[in-house]
Amino acid sequence: MRELAGRITRSNRFEYFIIGLILGNGALLGIETVPSIKEGYAVWLSAGHWATIGIFIVEAALKMLALAPRSERYFRDNWNVFDFTIIVLSLIPAVGTFAVVARMARLMRLLRLVSAVPELRLIVTTLVRSIPGMLHIVAVMSVLSYIYAILGYEFFHEHDPEHWNNLGTSLLSLFRVVTLEDWTDIMYVAMELNSFAWVYFVSYVVLGSFVTINLFIAVVISNLDEAKQERLRQLESVATRGELIDELRAARESLSRLERRLSEGEGLPDR
Q: Which of 68, 80, 213, 220, CA to CA, is 20 to 30 A from 154?
């Protein structure tokens, strides 16, 4: 049973089946937003949801069985913990105070697509790895924005109080500038006061938008390479274990054949 469960959970067909199931569940969630369909086919939609949960439970049980007798290793994989959490939340009845939680759990089933597709897992792993580096960039950007906000207040708050009335308003105006959303409107108003005000805005756009975005991209690409290398090492280790198992099986079969020959008198030649 353990070997059968392992073959099933590692097969490509089973993986594609789970992916199709997740996409089908997403389609059900979309269909439920149509009132006429939801009212007319409520029973079938509910049956589809419970069937999805049942298959997810069977999948988790098969993965645990494949790792028997050390099934606790199932929870050492963060993606397995994520899948198991979604299953548990999906079992919460959609009544009373738990109704909102149950609806959110239904939506979270779509996130299982990330854990089911290796390429998506790689992207999420890269983003998680990139968080520390991104926080450092955000810290630098925050200091830069604070300095520019104070300068903007000092330069323009009397001429354009709508955008530079206080520190908070100045920060919001700079956020609008760094997102490049109609930032030139703010700049042109400031240039009515001083024709060289464009230096302030252009320098902030270059530092806050172009340079920062490139830094974010650099951090993500660097961590993506590291995640790819780690995945390759994992695949190589899995292949090595498989090769060792095959060699051990071949050696065991050779020993069994030799033992049969010895027992039949076909072993060592007579002296």
A: 213
Q: Roughly how many angstroms between the first and final C-alpha of the chain, as a whole number?
A: 49
* Structural domain boundaries, residue 6: 2-115
Average model confidence (pLDDT) for the chain? 81
Q: How many CB atoms lie within 10 A of CB 201?
A: 20
CB 66 within 8 A of CB 2: yes
Find tokens 């609806």 and name the residue: 103
Q: Are 129 and 223 in contact (CB under 8 A)?
A: yes
Tokens encoding 172: 């919001």
What gap in Å lies between CA 155 and CA 193, rounded to an integer? 9
> Is 216 found in the same domain as 173?
yes
Is residue 158 packed enough to be buried (19+ CB in 10 Å), middle (13-18) or exposed (0-12)? exposed
Over residues 211-255, the pLDDT tens digits come to: 888 888 888 888 887 777 777 766 665 545 555 565 677 777 777
Whose tokens are 């090769």? That residue is 243
pLDDT of residue 271: 47
145 and 174 in contact (C-beta within 8 Å)? yes
Does residue 264 sit within a domain?
Answer: no
> Can you say whether the dihedral through the CA atoms of 158, 161, 164, 165 is positive or negative?
positive
